[in-house]
Write the structure tokens for this entry.
Amino acid sequence: MHKYKPAKRAAASIYILLTVVLVVVTGAIFLLIPLIGEYDIYIVAAYWILHAFFACVMIPMYFRHSMIGISHDEIVRHRGMLTLTSEFMPMESVKSVTTVITPLSRYTGLNFIIINALGSKIMLAFMKKDDCLEATEYINDIIRSRKA
Amino acid sequence: MKGPRAARAAVKIKKRRLRSFLRRRQHPIKLVNYTSKNIWLLLMPVTKYLVAARFDFQSWIRTNWLDILAITAIFAFAVLRWIFVYYEIEEDGIIAHTGLFGMLTTKVYFSEITTFSCTQGYIYNAVNACTMYIETNADSLPKTDIKLVLSEWCVAEIYKAVTRQGRKLPKFSVSPKKAYLVIFSLLFSSTLSGMVLFATFVFEFYRFLGNELGRQVEEQFFQRVNGEIIKIDSQFLRLLSTIPKAVLVLGVIILGGWVLSFTANLMRHWSFTATRCGSQLIIQSGVLTKRRHVINREKINFLDFQQTLLMKIFRINSVTLYCTGYGKRRREISALIPITTDKEMWASLKILEPSVPKPKTEISTGKRDLMRFATIPLIFCFIPPVAGTVAKLFLSQWHEEINIIMVLSVIPLAWLLIVQITAAFSTQMGFKNGFCTLAYCPLYQFHKIVIPKKNISKILVSRNIFQRRNGTCTLKVYTNAEKTKYHKLKSLPYDKVTDICAREGYVMEIEKAK
């Protein structure tokens, strides 16, 4: 069975993105909404707590629990933050594979595979580019051999 | 060959060519669909002018030339679209040329058809036209793989080609008893489905007339109905003097919804016949709108045994069948066996689907899960009294009405609580002979699903923080279907679920997997 874990670089990319969002939203609250007056500090505090919870708890949890196993007969995926989920898809249900590779994905880790079956899908997110290409090739080979 | 004989032969050839040209094209009534839906708004004033001008065509054309030109262009475009749409029957499939100027060519192989349907409303019935739908499991570009409005003759030709495999095979038919239909429809028709039906009707009405005109007509209609009701009430019933108007309106809505649902149920199932013929099921139904479906039995995704709480108590059942294309359209349901007694249902199922075993479950929820099922409906039950009490503080003159509305809104929520308490004892799952059985109750309706294992496309087991503590999980089983479709069972024991899944080959742990 081929096992894959999300790329650590993807976590770094998400943190960079979150920092940008934090700066923009905080700036927006202080500068663009003078209507809320003295309460802006409370709104910013609430937003920062939410943001910190997301950055310090949710994202590490997601990366710790995410794991994908692909074998000749099945695809198993574990994921979750507060709710842990295990997914099982028989390989015979798989009809096609969609790969999403974003620009500079070798550095950002923002690569995705969507495995399409009749009536369901499995998305494998934040994979290393090499893992992403390898997994796609492997699944496509299985589909090809089935058709032959 | 010269003279009149040659002329007659030439006419004959032309007629034959014209006939073969028209033979595989849509019914001319489709031209009406192809013209703009609001064309009659343009047509009416133009006709009015013609009548006003006492059929003086010259002056009529001179004054209305732009409108006439627009109408002619619309009709010409419709004719052009109609000409380009046609079908061909081949040995192994059917080819349809559809879309704008026939640009879309779709070939569907007979072996890949999941459902072949033809629907004939009363208007189409008068002109011998039918709407034909052909569906496959593929998620095609248009909503339906092939949809054409054809003459009855053409549909019969395609039907013959589609059902060719079972022509010489024995046929086994099942029809529900009419007395059962009337009694059970009377007992189990729901107000909610009637209201959904009414909402669909209003939606269609607006779609046809456009928003502004629709609103005007609706206002006039309701004013008229209101006037008549008040007149009848003041003359005979005098209900308004004793019951508040808001409550009376609510009562009329509930009763109206129920009557609508009852009538629709009866109409749909009155002439229902299901026939097994080789690898196909042929289902015919409807009184005003006649429907006929040919379903490929090998491509049936799953069967759903549906019951409401009352039906469960009285051991009444109805079976619906899920196959791509069947029951997909508005106002259609995917029935295999309409409402009947449990005993009759099993007898009918044995005739129609002998390979499907009696559902067998291995694990079930029970007394210990009662609170998990009852908590949310219980909270909902308190919402109307709390909301009513708050409303009474602001609306002091409406106390009586608020009280009645409060009681009326608690009734369905209390019913939901009772249903969910029953569901706590009847949420089950299990595997037997290559079939998976899932029993659950999402809201008011109990479902027992029987899926062949090969049609399970994904299994998902999830556990939130509370479920991790009490050892339960939520199971979602995704089935082969055109669109995403899953069955969700909550509060099942986690260990047993994973054991059963592992036994059936659904190993959820990456380390343990092959």
